[in-house]
Specification:
Strand order of the largest sheet: 20-22-25-24-23-26-27-21
Number of strands: 27
Strand content: 15-25%
Radius of gyration: 45 Å
Largest sheet: 8 strands, mixed
């Protein structure tokens, strides 16, 4: 129909232009048919004086008036005019179309138009302008929108209005990006004006919805520059910078900086938040719209999430993984901010950094131990667990004593009842019932044994060391010994000096306790935060032991100490009535023997008077952190620990699913162990019960204290090695697990 209308126009006597209005779908097809019909084309773009200058329409009209002189111009089609007029707006479009409507030309001129169908219909108010003068397609729709980019942002898109018109003349539609300084705010098309790089990114990337506050103009400009290189593909930009996959890997190295690359990582995370597996990271991203806040929010967002929140456990674990490589300086800021809500603060801390471990101990010291400490700071939890001693008739006494000692060390408080106990023990000195360290070492197999002396290692750490050995897959044998008095290194080093095999000495623990080199001072901070370093030192020693054993550098790793140390003697701050003759040595816990003296709580040994209570001789310098030299149990009782590679595949089972309790005699159980072992014992309720071997696989254990029905979890040991866990299901004589009669007893 359109070509037929043009043909009728060509054979008519009309001396005015014919207006052919088409849509995007028809444009190229009509253009081709007009070319086949022998029409020459006039491009409006040719009338632009420069790349970014509007065409000279007056010059165009003048050409249309004068083309009759040239025979080649008898049949002309003007293209690009409709689009140009649509760019200029309704008023200008109507004005110029009205001018062209009334133009008297000598030959046939067709003006091919897009985007001004409404304006053409407006001309129909003139009765002379009828269907001989124009044709409008039924669907003359023009889907065109413009994104105008200020040249100051960068060169991307079409370089000016001339290039835009040329592309439109060739049939381009859709969204077109143009670099131009020309104001086209009255255009009939949708116009997006990009005045800065952020708007450019939004225009380039379909569906981009990150807020402007996520970056600076310089950062957006750099991203825009990269987008132009990758055809607007944000994914391609991410891929080029290493953010195509595994977005949660190497988190700290990617987030720890202020460069464009670090910022782009943040943008990649924000853009792909719904693909992340780390829920805490997604939570932080949802609440962070500024890159400068991102790292801080990763650290601190957990503070505002109550530990009772159903999301908390997941958030806690996932955050811990994210921040595990953050330096202490970054964590320090979090620690300070986290102190806002004291009751909540403990739940947000981890054991990942020294400053947090110290903060945990400080909190526990002031507020008490919470059950969640086992997850928050497992090492501290292991340290505080009851260690059940197995060293003869003083076992129960030592078990109870060191359980109380550790609790008071951590709480930083001395209980009156415990002071009384210490003072009674100072007179009885039950440690003399123990073998000496040298006696125990002399009785051990020294073949392939590596001797490691950790200065000041007391028995208070045995539960912790036992747990470490278990986690490292080591077999452990613990012997409880006594040091020589006074508990000073010079009196207790002969075991090391006389050792003929491989050996090593470590002073770190001793320095932490009472040396300036340790970095702790009682006067600056009287809380036992130094315990964190003590546990770290011991952990590293057990790691060394495991490494040496696994590499077969030795068969046995023998961990020994010269003496222990006392925190509570420092807290006591008690001065004796006698002056010391060794000013500043061992904080007055011992002094050279003098006569006469009235000190029933002092031991006389090796030419010294050694205090077994928590006092110190007058005139001595008060200890800073911990002290040794005296004869308290924590100073005298020392471990000899033998570590070896553990036997594997040992299993423990109860022979009977249920056992019967007797309120008079207790109960009896039988264990099945799949491999012959020695020194089997069951520990239940912090008491140790030895087993009797019935054969190579069966072991009977009498539990005289288990007199009530119920379920009793218990640990099974081979020597000092934990080889299994069992649950004793004890029922009354009636066959009930909860026998009411038995419960009466």
């Amino acid at each position: 129909m359109s070509i037929e209308a043009v043909d009728r126009y060509l054979f008519s006597s009309i001396k005015a232009p014919f207006f052919l209005v088409v849509g995007d779908e028809q444009y190229k097809d009509v253009l081709a048919k007009l070319k086949e019909s022998g029409f020459n084309f006039i491009r409006v773009s040719d009338y632009c004086g420069s790349d970014d200058r509007l065409p000279d329409i007056d010059r165009l009209i003048e050409r249309l008036r004068t083309t009759d002189v040239n025979a080649n111009d008898n049949k002309l089609v003007v293209i690009g005019l409709g689009e140009y007029l649509a760019l200029r707006g309704d008023n200008i479009a109507k004005s110029i179309l009205s001018q062209l409507k009334d133009l008297n030309i000598g030959s046939k001129k067709v003006i091919l138009l897009r985007g001004v169908a409404t304006q053409i219909r407006h001309l129909q108010t003139d009765p002379r302008f009828d269907n001989r003068r124009f044709f409008v397609f039924d669907k003359a729709n023009c889907d065109l929108s413009l994104t105008l980019v200020d040249s100051a942002i960068g060169q991307w898109g079409l370089p000016g209005v001339k290039a835009l018109l040329m592309s439109l003349e060739d049939g381009l539609y859709g969204n077109v990006v143009v670099n131009t300084e020309i104001n086209l705010d009255k255009a009939l098309f949708t116009v997006h004006i990009i005045n800065d790089a952020y708007d450019g990114v939004k225009s380039f990337v379909s569906g981009f919805n990150l807020p402007r506050s996520c970056g600076s103009n310089e950062q957006w400009a750099k991203l825009l520059e990269e987008l132009t290189q990758y055809n607007g593909s944000l994914d391609a930009v991410f891929e080029k910078n290493g953010f195509g996959s595994n977005l949660e890997a190497d988190f700290y190295s990617r987030v720890a900086g202020i460069e464009y690359w670090n910022w782009l990582y943040f943008i990649a995370l924000k853009s792909k938040s719904n693909t992340l597996s780390n829920n805490y990271l997604r939570f932080v991203l949802d609440n962070t719209d500024c890159f400068e806040d991102f790292k801080t929010n990763v650290l601190n967002a957990i503070i505002e999430v109550p530990h009772t929140d159903k999301r908390f456990c997941t958030f806690y674990a996932e955050r811990k993984k994210l921040v595990e490589k953050f330096p202490e300086s970054d964590i320090a800021d979090f620690v300070v901010n986290n102190r806002k809500n004291v009751a909540e603060s403990i739940y947000k801390l981890t054991d990942g950094t020294k400053i947090e471990r110290e903060e945990i101990i400080a909190w526990v010291s002031k507020n008490g131990v919470i059950p969640q400490i086992a997850n928050i700071y497992p090492a501290l939890s292991d340290y505080l667990k009851t260690y059940v001693f197995n060293c003869g008739d003083v076992s129960d006494l030592l078990t109870e004593y060191f359980d109380e000692y550790k609790k008071q060390k951590v709480s930083n408080k001395l209980e009156a009842e415990f002071i009384e106990k210490v003072e009674n023990l100072a007179k009885t000195r039950v440690f003399n019932r123990l073998s000496t360290r040298n006696e125990i070492i002399d009785g051990l197999n020294k073949d392939g044994t590596y001797l490691y002396w950790l200065d000041s290692l007391g028995v208070e750490y045995l539960a912790f060391i036992e747990a470490l050995a278990r986690k490292r897959g080591l077999s452990i044998s613990i012997y409880i010994a006594r040091a020589n008095l006074p508990t000073i290194t010079s009196i207790n080093r002969d075991f090391f000096d006389n050792w003929e095999g491989e050996k090593e000495k470590n002073d770190q623990l001793d320095e932490t306790k009472h040396s300036d080199a340790g970095g702790y001072n009682f006067e600056n901070n009287d809380l036992p935060i130094y315990l964190a370093k003590e546990l770290d030192i011991i952990s590293s020693v057990i790691d060394k032991a495991a490494t040496e054993l696994v590499l077969r550098h030795c068969k046995r790793f023998l961990l020994v100490s010269d003496h222990g140390a006392s925190r509570l003697a420092v807290l006591r701050r008690k001065e004796e009535k006698y002056e010391t003759d060794t000013k500043g040595e061992h904080s007055g816990r011992c002094c050279k023997l003098f006569e006469p003296y009235d000190l029933p709580f002092a031991a006389k040994e090796n030419g010294y008077l050694v205090l077994a209570d928590y006092g110190r001789f007058k005139g001595s310098r008060a200890a800073s952190v911990e002290v040794h030299g005296g004869a308290s149990l924590e100073e005298v009782v020392v471990p000899v620990i033998e570590l070896m590679l553990k036997r594997s595949n040992i299993t423990v089972e109860m022979v009977e699913e249920f056992v019967t309790v007797d309120f008079r005699t207790g109960t009896e159980i039988t264990l099945f162990i799949n491999s012959p072992v020695k020194d089997v014992a069951v520990v239940i309720n912090n008491k140790r019960y030895s087993a009797l071997a019935l054969d190579n696989n069966h072991y009977k254990v009498v539990l005289p204290d288990t007199k009530r029905a119920g379920n009793y979890p218990a640990d099974v040991y081979m020597g000092d090695d934990l080889i299994g866990n069992i649950v004793i299901k004890a029922q009354g004589k009636s066959g009930k697990v909860n026998d009411d009669f038995d419960d009466l007893f």
